[in-house]
Amino acid sequence: MSTKEEAAKICRLNDQLRCRGIGGRMMVTRGIASLGADMLVKIMWAVVTFDAFTPDNDPYGEHDCANLEVDGVRVLWKIDYYDLTLSMHSPNPADPDVTIRLLTVMLAEEY
């Protein structure tokens, strides 16, 4: 598989998790949770509907991270790739059989 094909597969898997909650785990930090339920809903909606990917903010075309602002709150979301034991990086993020994706939504200052 070429690097371009691999990036496209990673992108599809990442979008599947971010937009539909399929293929991994999603979590929010304490900072996000402390903002309350209404703000949490707004932030998660902004994450799942985010589509402003450009070569500047997504240089590898994997849709794995973005910064955004929701009602004046700076938010960062990021997808990391782990092996099936969650103890190391995945040996191949393009292979869902050996990868657990973890989407973390956090306040920008928590990064």
Q: Report helical residue fraction.
A: 25-40%
The count of helical stretches stands at 3
Sequence of secondary-structure elements? HEHHEEE
Radius of gyration, rounded?
14 Å
What structural category arises from helix and sheet content? Answer: alpha+beta
| Arithmetic mean pLDDT | 96
Overall shape: it is: globular
Largest sheet: 4 strands, mixed
Task: Please mark out the parts with pLDDT under 50 across 5 or more consecutive residues, or reply none.
Answer: none
Approximately what portion of the residues adopt beta-strand conformation?
Answer: 25-35%
Strand arrangement, largest sheet? 1-4-3-2
Report the strand count.
4
Give the distance, in angstroms, between the N- and C-terminal Cα atoms: 33 Å
Describe the structure.
The structure is a single chain. By secondary structure, this protein is an alpha+beta fold. Helices cover 32% and strands 26% of the residues. It contains 3 helices and 4 strands. The radius of gyration is 14 Å and the shape is globular. The model has no long low-confidence stretch (mean pLDDT 96).
Essential attributes:
111 residues, alpha+beta, 32% helix, 3 helices
Brief digest:
This protein is of the alpha+beta class.
How are the SSEs placed, and which strands pair?
Layout: H1 3-20, E1 24-28, H2 30-33, H3 37-49, E2 65-70, E3 73-82, E4 100-107
Parallel strand pairs: 1-4
Antiparallel strand pairs: 2-3, 3-4
